[in-house]
Description:
Blueprint: H1 2-6, H2 9-21, H3 27-46, E1 54-57, E2 60-63, H4 69-88, H5 96-112, H6 117-136, H7 141-172, H8 185-198, H9 205-210, H10 216-237, H11 243-261, H12 265-286, H13 289-320, H14 336-349, H15 356-370, H16 374-401, H17 414-432, H18 434-438, H19 452-474, H20 491-511, H21 517-534, H22 546-565
Antiparallel strand pairs: 1-2
Amino acid sequence: MKMLATMPLPFYFLIGGLVSIFLPKGVIKSSFVCLVPVVALLALLNGTWDGGFIVQFLDLELNFMRVDKLSIVFGIIFCIAAFLGNVFAFHLRESTQPFIALIYAGAAIGAVFAGDLITLFVYWELTAISSVFLIWARKTEGAYHSGMRYLIIQVLSGVVLLFGVALFYFETGSISFVKMELSSLATALIFIAFGIKCAFPFLHNWLQDSYPSATITGTVILSAFTTKLAVYALARGFPGTELLIYIGAAMTIFPIFFAEVENDLRKVLAYSLNNQLGFMVVGVGVGTELALNGTAAHAFSHILYKALLFMSVGAVLFRTGTSRASELGGLYRTMPLTATFCLIGAASISAFPLFSGFVSKSLIMSGAGKEHYEIIWLILVFASAGVLSHSGIKVPYFTFFHHDSGKRPQEAPTHMLLAMGLTAILCIYIGIFPNNLYAIMPFQVKYEPYTFEHILTQLQLLCFAILAFYILSKLKQLPSETRSVNLDFDWTYRVFLPFIIRKLLSLLEATEQKGLKVFNQFLYFVLRKVYHVSGPEGVMTRILTSGTMVLFIAIILLIVLGIILF
């Protein structure tokens, strides 16, 4: 028992995952997988890791359990998310997904409690390698392709992190995971690695590509861990870095427009996930105790209401076989409970009073306002209205209340309703009793969200946003819900870059007779090679084969290891 009390928290998940492989498929396996996060949560709340869990490796001290208020917040919500996700997936009768769900959750929790950068890197890569199987488990060609892109990008994030950690050790002689200044190549690389996983602008497409491609249950699990782990890493390593304020503000804005025109509702939710991450990143950038509490609180509440929204859309996908807005509508008739839970998730993400998003998002906005970032505050206000439009209204409206699609599916299975019900209760409970959430935040800051001014401002914002949606709907000015392909930033290398290259090739051909033949031939050769990579049929627009991917990653790893060793 003493060993269990001092065992690093992620080991509960890792050992539990290995045990689950040998359990018979069905109720026993599913019950065990649900039990593991509960045991881990009890261990976290009652365990003692004074001084951490130190392991000597070569000349380095690796700390597997650095326990403080910041890590505890994320540890608690990760355990809760793992439990709720596994309840939602109770129907699964296979070995892969339950096993992977535990390993993935354990890796994310391990990274949260990592006291050094080497341990962080190990768990960082384990989250990448394990989570991709939740995408591949869907067993479609699209899922395989998306998974390959996801794996390449996530492993690349780890390689960049390793490179940065190596340089950081050479510069400082330390591998401690503490607050860093963005003042060297080492910290810049670590910052970029965190940014890739956090889906910074221009580094975000993996999120919208992979999450909707995963299984119904896999998407729920994925939404909880990877990006919030990155938020935690930024809050631990770069609090008060002003650059993050502007990155976060951009993250809150650009997904709004893509979400408005997106037909696949799981992609809409993926874009809104990016939007909500922006609020958290702004909080980290502001860096005050109030703002950092806001980041942790919003990550906590966001995991819950985003999971609830993905669960409700996932339940619809499970019953109807589609999550496209153009193919849905009128489902409230036969799926009233799922519709109700979806509305609770929509109210939470839209920050309606008495729901979780209201009491967490306000901390960040107040933190930005008190530090006199007025423009940023206005951007966050606009972003709040935007998220109401695409996630608060669009998702439930087009799924359950829009034109009658003629579909009459059964209500979601009991275990899915249970998972959604528990999550919905937590969303409401946090909204009504916010002090219970504030009590576990990293800093002791007194804050009252339910002031007359704040409630009035938020209700005015919400009412005007709803009115705008209603007027646009009556005028038939809303983006049509039709089958389409949203390229997002992929447009730059799928369309723009090939266009520029074609123009340059034409220019070279036209000037070949003007004495620059040798130079032109060389440049022509280079451009053709680039076009081969980024053109419509190039490897950037196709999915890399497994062999190519492995070779690509191996080369990068060899380069990094060579630098480290020599």
